[in-house]
Specification:
The protein is built from 4 helices and 8 strands. By secondary structure, the chain is an alpha+beta fold.
């Protein structure tokens, strides 16, 4: 096959008599800019088949683009001479979200913070672990006070803005 390039060679795959091995395909340079410098490849979103989530061509999305996971657990962190209890993902990350309709211990921790650190009235049930209209309204007030707009949820942006949690030894502290 002199003078011809097989499809396998272009793809970087070689086939031996008894084994198949994958050889890394050569890297291709990005197109040159008018000044002669090359541009880095930017990941693009793929269109997913029906019923399957879309993925990106890169392995890790930028932090500003990546969606936070739901908060479904809690974690104890040492702060201010005591401990704060904060919502987390099931892997222990504090980068998570809660919103209307959510329930459980993570919601209770946010509600306790709204009552103890922000002096919000959540009604007769107080920190009941159910994210309802009063919790929604209280979070919106806190977000507005920190210069954050909608959504009316507990989000990583709110945590980065210094959302406070009650310290078990007294006072309040941020994550």
């Amino acid at each position: 096959m002199r003078g011809k390039i097989s499809l396998f060679a272009v793809a970087g795959v070689s086939v031996g008599a008894a084994t198949v091995s994958v050889i890394p395909a050569p890297a291709f340079a990005a197109p040159a800019t008018p000044t002669g410098a090359t541009q880095a490849h930017q990941p693009t979103a793929r269109t997913a088949p029906a019923g399957r989530p879309a993925t990106a061509t890169s392995r890790k999305a930028p932090a500003a683009v990546a969606a936070a996971l739901p908060c479904n657990g809690t974690r104890r962190l040492a702060r201010g001479g005591g401990f704060i209890f904060v919502p987390t993902t099931n892997t222990g990350s504090t980068v998570c979200e809660l919103g209307f309709g959510d329930a459980g211990a993570p919601v209770t921790k946010v509600q306790s913070a709204l009552i103890d650190c922000y002096h919000k009235n959540l009604g007769p049930t107080g920190a009941d672990g159910q994210w309802g209209a009063r919790t929604q309204a209280a979070i919106q007030e806190v977000r507005a006070s920190k210069g954050l707009g909608n959504p009316q949820d507990y989000t990583p942006a709110l945590v980065q803005a210094g959302f406070l949690f009650p310290v078990d030894s007294g006072g309040c502290a941020a994550i």
